């Protein structure tokens, strides 16, 4: 005879498909409308989100003294031919003049290359941004953000 489904028994649905892959597609990544932000798709998007979190916090604290600042993430710095091959910049700061805003550029690949893990990368991004903002304001980095490492 065949198998019988009892109506009172709960039906368990597996969160994986028959090949064991699990949920896939846009629904598995999250959706802003359902209260879950979508996951970054690339390491570049993840890095941009990390920089945005750090910059938003610092800019909110110092916006009255900073003035207009553009925060930019670039993959790698464009180095001149006569650059010392033993060093690579992690960021660049160009002071604004008149109506031209100051420009703080953070280079993604050199920072990712030096970081051992995600926590290390977060600390390095915070350090680089705080040091550049401190240079722009003419104050000590530890005054810009209390999370700045003292050593």
TrEMBL record:
Residues 12-22 have a biased composition (Basic residues). SUPFAM superfamilies: Metalloproteases ('zincins'), catalytic domain (SSF55486). Residues 23-33 have a biased composition (Gly residues). Residues 1-45 are annotated as: Disordered. InterPro entries: Zincin_1 (IPR010428), Zincin_1_sf (IPR038555). It holds the Pfam family Zincin_1. Gene3D superfamilies: 3.30.2010.20. Residues 1-11 have a biased composition (Basic and acidic residues). This is Metallopeptidase family protein. It comes from Nocardioides humilatus.
């Amino acid at each position: 005879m065949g198998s019988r489904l009892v109506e009172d028994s709960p039906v368990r649905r597996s969160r994986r498909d028959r090949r064991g892959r699990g949920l896939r597609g846009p629904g598995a990544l999250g959706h802003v409308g359902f209260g879950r932000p979508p996951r970054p798709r690339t390491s570049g998007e993840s890095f941009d989100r990390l920089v945005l979190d750090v910059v938003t916090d610092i800019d909110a604290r110092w916006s009255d003294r900073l003035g207009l600042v553009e925060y930019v993430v670039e993959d790698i710095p464009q180095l001149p031919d006569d650059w010392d091959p033993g060093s690579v910049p992690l960021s660049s700061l160009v002071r604004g003049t008149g109506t031209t805003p100051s420009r703080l550029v953070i280079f993604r690949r050199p920072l990712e290359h030096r970081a051992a893990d995600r926590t290390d990368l977060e600390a390095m991004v915070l350090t680089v941004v705080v040091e550049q903002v401190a240079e722009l304001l003419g104050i000590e980095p530890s005054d810009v953000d209390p999370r700045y490492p003292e050593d």
